[in-house]
Specification:
Keywords: Membrane, Transmembrane, Transmembrane helix. It is a single chain. The chain contains 3 helices and no strands.
């Protein structure tokens, strides 16, 4: 969802909030943090599999 916002689609948030997030870079920060969380969960599953 966060990468969709960075791509320019204001899905689920008001357009003004989306434009402000793109202007100040906060949407990019959220997208990167979400990506790191996904990578961490995949690595955890890889460690727990037999």
């Amino acid at each position: 969802m966060r990468w969709i916002w960075v791509a320019g689609v204001p899905m689920g948030i008001p357009e003004g909030v989306h434009a402000d997030g793109l202007a100040d870079g906060s949407l990019w920060a959220g997208a990167w943090l979400g990506s790191f969380a996904l990578v961490g969960s995949v690595l955890t599953v890889g460690l727990l599999r037999p």
